Amino acid sequence: MLKSKPFLLSCFALSINTRHFDDDIVKLDLSIPKYDSKRKRQQLSKKQRKERAKEHRAKQARKINYKNQKLGIINPTKQTSSMILAFNPIFKQPILAATKIHTFREDKHNRWKPGMRIHMATGVRTKNFNCFNDIDNCVSTQIVIITYQNAKRKKDEKYWPFKGLYYKISVDGKFLNNQQIIDIAYNDGFKSVDDFFTWFKDGFNGKIIHWTNFKY
User: Given phi > 0 = left and psi -120 to 50 = alpha, else beta, which region is 198?
Assistant: First the structure.
């Protein structure tokens, strides 16, 4: 049975209206602004950004732990950290011969701590890089300060005269006497106390990095 023309026209008009309505919906969806994460981060305070960054790192660490536990690796995030110690080539042989048992290093950011793996090397940041010893760990550290004065002093075992100056060494707040100054020079790989103070002629403020049980 054929449908009347008015009925067909009304259906066609209805379909046109519906299509236009659908187009309006699509345009409305496209006109909604996307979430601006960068602007949102800028609105956060510095403390909130730090907290979010900390949460993100913790989340990433948990993911790494989960994946490594599946592979049979236990506590991968607690592995011993390590650092490279750069040495002048003249100290290579004393270290291997175990006559140099520690080193003096500046440590403004307090990076060196007991338990850290030590990679001893020469030619660091050059094509001649050579890691000659990586079997030792940092056993302990001590604060060391070397100062000097121009004024002459009376006989005092706390001072060491060198080229018209008077040097003084303190380790963990205690001043060394003459015999201890001789010991620290030889233990640091120098052939004489004069060689030691020639190296540290401008004074020093930092740490003694020990890789043996010896301490001052």
Answer: alpha
